[in-house]
Write a structure and sequence with these properties.
This protein is of the alpha/beta class. It folds into 2 domains: 228 residues, D-Maltodextrin-Binding Protein, domain 2 (3-Layer(aba) Sandwich); 209 residues, D-Maltodextrin-Binding Protein, domain 2 (3-Layer(aba) Sandwich). It contains 19 helices and 14 strands.
Length: 476
């Protein structure tokens, strides 16, 4: 009864939000506010980032103190997200005349706090959140279409085509509307022991055993072959105990399946929110996951972020699929693989992506100034202001800057992975993304523990996906 009540309440609230948004100030309701005060193109004292002198911190000449007296309140998660925004805000304030207040909330409380304000408080002018949340806000009518502002007050240097296309499509667009700018990209990466792959003696052993040359695997078939070779129980001569590892604890294990789903031609849901995985692609991805289990650590199902990363850094694992944050562990002083790791795209060539986007609320009090802030922090020079806060670039041109590439050895692989990624780690289904994650985790755990067959897991996932999606009134 409680569950039914909660679903009914969510539907009622969603309708209320949409209706209230129709009466709020939005980009479509008329011409953006005229700049107040005399305009004089700002000259911002630009910092050096990675040895690059930033030259475009005045919005391509569109900022000149005209937003003096206006305030922008931005909400996000505490930590690097908030710190990155605060750093960029200093330069935006100098150029625009506006003041920027960043309100942040600890992980675990941020989603609830921000959702509540968007529904009832209306204090926030902009939000920086995971993509699935931003798209949920868009479905509920809580954030604005940014296209009218682009048409009227955009910087001449905006260059939307410069965003990595997969990010622009997956982060910025929702149902054909531009609802956000990409802010923090994320993709699963392939980490491998470069020193082992390049060892002539190991190369000879692999050739003798398989008849093939040892190379970084690009296909699923080669991935399994190499994983078997580097697993001690399959090959007593292996220099590592395990050929493969990743996070397989509950809340993380779906990634093992998702990293192969798109590679075999599947998706989580289609454009109408209909499940698109209960097919040959989904089944092959499940079967590959079970094959990988043979070459994974015995404690695989207990490995979360810290445990999985520590095991790889110990030198016992030859290959690992993980988020880019693994780099800080393997590059640490305690790491036994420091300087020995290479980076690539997950085998199969279709890694899972995460990511955060920044959007303007439908009740922004100073919408034009807010838009300019969003544009500013995601501009070619502006996004480099966040790079020291673990916010990697979203623009192709920044990955092409030699100074940026040299700052992080993962960046070439990250660019390739972001460009190839097709599926979001959180299904792009408003209101129920978290529930769908739980459904996937339960099914994947069932398969890994031998409690469900791959086909039974797919059937269960599909039935529960349909149930949850229909419950919030989304089309199938």
């Amino acid at each position: 009864m409680k569950k039914k009540f909660n679903i009914m309440l969510l539907c009622v609230l969603t309708l209320t939000f949409v209706l209230s948004a129709c009466g709020s100030k939005s980009a479509d309701s008329g011409k953006p506010a005229e700049p107040k005060g005399e305009f004089k193109e700002a000259k911002v004292e630009a910092p050096d980032v990675l040895g690059i002198k930033l030259t475009d911190l005045n919005g391509g000449g569109t900022l000149g103190g005209q937003y003096k007296g206006q305030k922008i309140v931005v909400a996000t998660r505490t930590g690097d997200f908030a710190d990155a925004l605060k750093n960029a805000a200093k330069y935006f304030e100098e150029a625009s005349g506006a003041t920027v207040e960043v309100q942040s909330f600890p992980a675990g409380n941020d989603i609830e706090k921000i959702q509540l304000d968007l529904n009832t408080g209306h204090h926030f002018d902009a939000v920086l959140m995971p993509v699935a949340n931003v798209h949920g806000y868009a479905e509920g009518g809580l954030i604005q279409d940014l296209q009218p502002f682009i048409n009227s007050v955009a910087s001449p240097n905006l260059d939307l085509d410069d965003f990595i296309p997969s990010l622009w499509k997956s982060y910025g667009l929702y149902k054909g509307r531009m609802v956000a700018f990409p802010y923090k990209p994320d993709s699963q990466l392939f980490f491998y022991r470069k020193d082992l792959f390049e060892d002539p003696e190991i190369q000879k052993q692999y050739k003798d055993k398989t008849g093939k040359d040892l190379a970084v695997p690009a296909t699923v078939e080669d991935f399994l072959s190499v994983a078997e070779f580097f697993t001690k129980k399959s090959n007593p001569d292996s220099p590592t105990k395990y050929g493969y590892s990743s996070m397989a604890s509950k809340t993380n294990s779906r990634l093992i399946w998702q990293n192969r789903l798109a590679a075999f031609g599947g998706k989580d849901v289609d454009e109408n929110f209909k499940p698109a995985f209960n097919n040959e692609a989904g089944l092959k991805a499940m079967q590959t996951m079970l094959e990988l289990k043979k070459f994974a650590p015995d404690e695989w199902l207990q490995l979360g972020w810290d445990e999985a990363n520590a095991l790889f850094a110990s030198g016992e694992v030859a290959m690992m699929e993980q988020w880019p944050g693994l780099y800080s562990t393997i590059d640490g002083e305690q790491s036994k693989v420091k300087g020995k790791v290479g980076f690539g795209v997950t085998p199969g060539g279709a890694p899972t992506m995460g990511g955060w986007a920044i959007a303007m609320t439908n009740t922004a009090k100073n919408p034009e100034a807010t838009y300019k802030f969003l544009e500013y922090v995601t501009s070619k020079d502006g996004e480099l202001l966040k790079i020291n806060n673990t916010m990697d670039p979203t623009r192709t041109s920044n990955y092409n800057r030699p100074e940026v590439l040299e700052s992080n050895p993962m960046y070439p692989a990250l660019l390739d992975s972001l460009s190839a990624a097709q599926i979001l780690v959180d299904p792009d289904v408003p209101f129920v993304s978290a529930k769908l994650n739980d459904i996937m985790e339960n099914a994947i755990q069932g398969v890994l523990r031998g409690e469900l067959t791959p086909q039974a897991a797919l059937d269960d996932m599909e039935q529960n996906f349909i149930k949850e999606i229909k419950a919030v009134g989304l089309s199938l």
